[in-house]
């Protein structure tokens, strides 16, 4: 009988009850982590969209400058 105190066998369900709680807790943590990762990915996607728009604006500006300067350097 020594060592049985705190072994969990006195609880209803024994070790199985602890395992079910642990699995439920793990599942809840995974859902939270996935939601956080999703939010981070959406923020990255929005930042990428903004960067693409900026690149498009720069390319447009470069095109305008090169068209204007194309005929000035000859004679």
UniProtKB/TrEMBL annotation:
What's its job?
A: Inhibits the enzyme activity of ATPase.
Protein name as annotated = ATPase inhibitor, mitochondrial
Keyword Transit peptide attributed: yes
Q: Which GO terms describe its cellular component?
A: mitochondrion
Record-linked InterPro entries: ATPase_inhibitor_mt
Listed GO molecular functions? Answer: ATPase inhibitor activity
Keywords assigned by UniProt?
Coiled coil, Mitochondrion, Transit peptide
Ranges in a coiled coil:
34-68
Region named Disordered: 1-22
Similarity comment:
Belongs to the ATPase inhibitor family.
Q: Which PANTHER family match?
A: ATP SYNTHASE F1 SUBUNIT EPSILON (PTHR48417:SF1)
């Amino acid at each position: 009988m020594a060592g049985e105190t705190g072994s969990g066998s006195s609880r209803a369900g024994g070790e199985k009850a602890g395992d079910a709680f642990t699995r439920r807790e793990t599942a809840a943590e995974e859902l939270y982590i996935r939601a956080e990762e999703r939010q981070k990915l959406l923020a990255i996607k929005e930042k990428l969209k903004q960067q693409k728009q900026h690149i498009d604006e720069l390319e447009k500006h470069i095109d305008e400058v090169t068209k204007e300067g194309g005929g000035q350097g000859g004679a």
